From TrEMBL:
Cofactor: a divalent metal cation
Gene3D superfamilies given in the database record: HRDC domain, Ribonuclease H-like superfamily/Ribonuclease H
Domain HRDC: 217-298
E.C. designation(s): 3.1.13.5
Name assigned to this protein: Ribonuclease D
CDD domains to which the protein is assigned, alphabetical: RNaseD_exo
């Protein structure tokens, strides 16, 4: 188990990797005490016997915490179009590389997404694919390791390497299945979302949209917007978790009570002690005032009145989705969410479920069902689409 700690060794491995058809990649990181993920370990593996021992062997660990190590050779490999970069559930890994180096590994293959396209269920875990495809079992004893601590034990290293060595078998199987079923374009549509910078950008002015609240008063929402904006910017600038500034329940409380002084903050039931004074307290009070004085009041999305047949149509769309997903061997959630089905029933048409490969599998018939052009017929355990005369 070789751990790379020098830039020249990483460069040698990556140069050899450029001659390989693919490289499997995983990371270990910490995020409990920071806003941005702290990269602690990188695992890389090449197809068996694809690189000489002088390059570090087929699978290596890279220690990004090693003094003097530059990751530029790895980023150069990520830019190399001749080698596919294979991840499982890549989103968090990609967020790290996007934030640290402003790049995405390309070409990219995500085995979790590919597995859903190939009918392995929704959000299928790596352990499940290792068992079903690689016919192996994972040692989970090091799952909750603090990856920032050094030295790493042999057990920790073995656990980390298993995340990329079994991934080779999984990738080769799934890529063959995609080719056989002519679904490579389906995967490409999903990968495009993972490679979109907008997927990983959180703008402070939009942070309030992710806060769940039952209050729809425009003034309350304006204060909430300003509080969420302050919290997001403060957490990003200082690289601390949002919850270290104040939690959602405290933000909702403050938006409701509208404190004007530090003494008012001191009466809060939910604010952390650190948030009742100093920079955070000043930021809270300024945000409350900005929300109170704002003339740009956000409007909560009005709930559409129920339309005749909407609830029934939503139920029918769920039946249709299940039937279509079963027939295509695809996880239903990958095609459409429950919210999208309800939106189709309410008349919305600008939805992912109605575009691309999803339209071919489900969306076109969903629109025909909504328009009354087809009906559903149950026979035994199957559901069929029946044209309406």
């Amino acid at each position: 188990m070789i751990t790379i700690t020098r830039t020249e060794d990483l460069a040698l491995f990556c140069e050899n990797a450029k001659a390989a058809p693919y490289v499997t990649v995983d990371t270990e990181f910490l995020r409990e005490r920071t806003y941005w993920s702290k990269l602690c370990l990188i695992q890389l593996a090449l197809p068996p016997a694809s690189t000489p021992k002088a390059a570090g062997g087929e699978a290596v660990l890279v220690d990004p915490l090693a003094e003097g190590l530059s990751l530029e050779p790895l980023y150069d490999l990520f830019r190399h179009q001749g080698t596919v970069k294979v991840f499982h559930a890549a989103r968090q890994d990609l967020e790290i590389f996007f934030h640290d180096a402003a790049l995405f590994p390309q070409p990219l293959f995500d085995t979790q997404v590919a597995a859903m396209v190939c009918g392995f269920g929704e959000q299928v875990g790596y352990e499940t694919l290792v068992r079903k495809i690689a016919r192996a079992n994972l040692d989970k004893s090091s799952r909750f390791t603090d990856w920032s601590r050094r030295p790493l034990s042999d057990a920790q290293k073995a656990y980390a390497l298993a995340d990329v060595t079994h991934l080779r078998v999984i990738y080769e199987f799934l890529s063959a299945e995609l080719r056989k079923n002519d679904r490579e374009s389906w995967l490409a549509e999903e990968i495009a979302v993972l490679e979109d910078p907008e997927t990983y950008i959180t703008r402070p002015e939009e942070a309030w949209l992710k806060v769940r609240t039952r209050t729809n008063s425009p003034r309350f929402l304006a204060i909430l917007r300003e509080l969420a904006r302050f919290r997001e910017a403060y957490a990003q600038e200082r690289d601390i978790p949002r919850s270290r500034v104040f939690k959602d329940d405290a933000m909702i409380e403050v938006a409701s009570t509208k404190p004007a002084t530090e003494a008012d903050l001191g009466r809060s039931r939910l604010l952390l002690r650190e948030a009742r004074k100093g920079d955070i307290a000043n930021g809270i009070l300024a945000a409350v005032k900005a929300g109170v004085d704002s003339k740009d009041l956000p409007q909560a999305k009005a709930e559409e009145p129920g339309k005749p047949g909407n609830a029934a149509l939503s139920d029918l769309l769920r039946v249709l989705l299940k039937a279509k997903a079963d027939a295509a061997g695809v996880a239903p959630k990958l095609i459409a969410s429950a919210a999208e089905l309800d939106a189709i029933a309410q008349g919305e048409r600008d939805l992912p479920a109605l575009r691309g490969w999803r339209a071919e599998v489900f969306g076109q018939d969903a629109l025909r069902l909504a328009a009354g052009e087809i009906a559903l017929s149950a026979k035994g355990g199957s559901v069929r689409v029946v044209p309406v005369p």
